Amino acid sequence: MNVVPSASSYTSLHTAPADFPDSPLSQALRQPALLGLFLPIHHGGWSNSTLPRGTDWSFDYNAKLTLTAEALGFDLVFGVAQWMPKGGQGPTRTEAGLDSFIATASLASITSRILLVSTLHVLYGPWHPIHLAKFGATLDHISKGRWGINVVTGHRAYEHELFGWSRIEHDRRYELADEFVSVLKRLWTEEEPFSYRGQAAWQFKDAYISPRPLFGRPVLVNATGSDAGIDFAARHSDLVFVASPGGGDIDSALASLPAHTARLKQAARAHGRDIRTILNPLIVARETQAEAEAYAQAIVDNVDLASIAGRARLDSDAHAWRGHKGGDLRFGVGGAIGGNVQLIGSPEQIADQLVRLHAAGVDGFQLAFYDFEPDLAFFGARILPLLKQAGLRL
């Protein structure tokens, strides 16, 4: 039996989707700046406000958003995964929501070009590398190479306890995720059956996965701001979701992102790899700055403080948002407006801010909105043409 003690040494042998010129990821990377949509598949999206809007977590609503994004030329859509407790306080508390893996993968049947990224907590519950290798290869064929995994390790104590764990120490989670993903890569590429017994509970005998992914493996993504997460991204990920280390306002983001994105890219280069960074801005845009500011203020004026407080009570050891000001209702993850950077202004101002963020080392944008359907339509009609004029989109 070919038992190996570690999977990490095999990662350099694997081809990535970007190594294939005709892969969907390679086609997306021809854009000067990637453009994605952060689907609101959970109740309330990222915004804790009761200002009336149509944003909805249902599959039909998110499928419509995805088709609109694809028609506008967006490169990818992405959905968050959360395991939140029942109840809590406030009307916008995160409770109802679709599973990211199932919902995002289901979009393959109604789309033809856009990349589909499912968030998976690889350390929770029943996941075994053989399960995910087979599921992933199947989805890769159904989507013709457009499906990918946003690998997350979990940062809330509640979620670990839900699945029968005591919370795993932060850096140890990345060690386990490294083992899991390294084994996945072997399962997607080995020509002969192989057996494995590693540090964690995952082990198997004579595993072999068929069919093989079309372009080496599915797209791999993670979100991080920690040393351990950056090291993981450098070795495995094609795309990395980043937060502004300095906070959610545009000036703080522009000041702190250049060093942060440069560090990520240098870490990947040390492993002989290239990665792309993606930022998650929430955009509040209207025809004039005054109208946009008034709309943003209306969102804040209707803040759901009880829901924000309930989320804050869930113990987290995430590193990415440490620079965000929790007491500011406008700026900071989980505030009234939400997102991890907020862009507020006229179409010209929003386009200029995106151009400056791109110059700060951000390779793409995973957009969110307060009222997704009309705000996405406004972005497509009024801001996207300006990005093309500025050279960010072809």
UniProtKB/TrEMBL annotation:
Keywords: Flavoprotein, FMN, Monooxygenase, Oxidoreductase. Pfam families: Bac_luciferase. InterPro entries: Luciferase-like_dom (IPR011251), Luciferase-like_sf (IPR036661), SsuD_RutA_monooxygenase (IPR050172). It is an enzyme of class 1 (oxidoreductase). Its EC number is 1.-.-.-. One of its GO terms (molecular function) is oxidoreductase activity. PANTHER family: ALKANESULFONATE MONOOXYGENASE, ALKANESULFONATE MONOOXYGENASE-RELATED. It comes from Ancylobacter oerskovii. Transmembrane segments: none annotated. Residues 35-363 form the Luciferase-like domain. This is LLM class flavin-dependent oxidoreductase.
